[in-house]
């Protein structure tokens, strides 16, 4: 069985590159180390926002009360993560699966002293919404999910009415290994099931720690395979496919926000470098095309011993409650 939720959660490098503080809008690139370490270090009001890593596909937002984080996914790839503030004692933010019922760039609370709620996205008709607000570093709202002001604006512009928002409350582990621990060519078969999602945009996530590639189409995992590298992956890299000519994949390195163009100047990967199985590469060539994005990360995807070398902490880092996993496994929800 595919571990789609885990992959989407742990491939958070797809959202790497920018740590922005609400008050200063200061950009801070992630130059080395695991992305999850950087996410864990986010201070109140900071966020990561890289929508270009997955420019097309269905969106989903997952709020975690335990970690005081929200993660936005597009095409199954995390494109953003932010610190939040949820409901304080006596005003608990409800958990469950919600849809965006109403949006307003400027809104005031009808329940709490006409309090301003910029970039409001309503989840219930009894007062629960996503909106910009103060983030003291702990749950402090009357039940709403407060976001950094600039992040709230960015998210508001990307979402649509009817989009799903999942609110969960699960404490994750927050550290994973950054370097391979297994053999040069990892055990575990290539898997290819394109029928799980027949159409839609394709995104690829490659884990340096697991030495494995995962392929997502329209937000659903359709395949994975072992890969090999020339060296150790020490920093996140993002690429967009320009063309495929005679089996030659022509990738262009993307400059992530906050990253200098000089840092992005070294050569893009090729299929020879990644040494995936030939049948898998041939199958992959049938679904990718110009505009396909690929993210190469140092982090583990937490695939477990059946698909990847063991890691220190292969458990879930952001979300993997049964409700979230069931939702992510059901391809039909993307038709909503």
UniProtKB/TrEMBL annotation:
Residues 1-27 form the signal peptide. Keywords: Cell shape, Cell wall biogenesis/degradation, Peptidoglycan synthesis, Signal, Transferase. Residues 59-168 form the L,D-TPase catalytic domain. The keyword Cell wall biogenesis/degradation applies. It holds the Pfam family YkuD. GO terms for biological process: cell wall organization; peptidoglycan-protein cross-linking; regulation of cell shape. Pathway: Cell wall biogenesis; peptidoglycan biosynthesis. GO terms for cellular component: extracellular region. GO terms for molecular function: peptidoglycan L,D-transpeptidase activity; transferase activity. Belongs to the YkuD family. This is L,D-TPase catalytic domain-containing protein. It comes from Sphingomonas kyeonggiensis.
């Amino acid at each position: 069985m595919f571990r789609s939720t885990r992959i989407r959660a742990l491939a958070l490098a797809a959202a790497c590159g920018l740590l922005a503080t609400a008050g200063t809008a200061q950009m801070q690139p992630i130059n080395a180390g695991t992305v999850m370490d950087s996410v864990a270090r986010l201070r109140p009001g900071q966020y990561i926002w890289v929508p270009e890593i997955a420019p097309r596909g269905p969106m989903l937002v997952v709020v975690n009360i335990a970690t005081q984080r929200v993660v936005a996914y597009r095409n199954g790839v995390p494109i953003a993560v932010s610190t939040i503030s949820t409901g304080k004692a006596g005003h608990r933010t409800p958990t469950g699966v919600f849809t965006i019922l109403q949006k307003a760039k400027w809104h005031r609370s009808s329940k709490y002293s006409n309090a301003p709620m910029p970039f409001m996205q309503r989840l219930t008709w009894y007062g629960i919404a996503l909106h910009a607000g103060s983030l003291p570093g702990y749950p402090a709202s009357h039940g709403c999910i407060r976001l950094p002001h600039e992040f709230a604006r960015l998210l508001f512009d990307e979402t649509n009415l009817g989009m799903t928002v999942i609110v969960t409350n699960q404490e994750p582990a927050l550290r994973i290994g950054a370097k391979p621990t297994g053999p040069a060519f990892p055990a575990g078969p290539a898997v290819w099931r394109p029928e799980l999602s027949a159409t839609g945009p394709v995104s690829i996530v490659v884990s340096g720690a697991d030495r494995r590639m995962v392929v997502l189409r329209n937000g659903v995992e359709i395949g994975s395979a072992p890969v090999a590298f020339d060296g150790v992956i020490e920093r996140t890299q993002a690429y967009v496919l320009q063309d495929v000519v005679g089996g030659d994949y022509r990738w262009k390195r993307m400059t992530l926000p906050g990253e200098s163009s000089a840092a992005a100047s070294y050569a893009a990967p090729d299929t020879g470098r990644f040494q995936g199985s030939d049948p898998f590469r041939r199958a992959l060539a049938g679904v990718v095309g110009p505009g396909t994005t690929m993210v190469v990360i140092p982090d583990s995807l937490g695939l477990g011993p059946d698909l990847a070398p063991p890691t220190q902490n292969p458990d879930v880092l952001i979300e993997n409650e049964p409700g979230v996993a069931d939702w992510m496994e059901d391809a039909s929800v993307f038709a909503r």
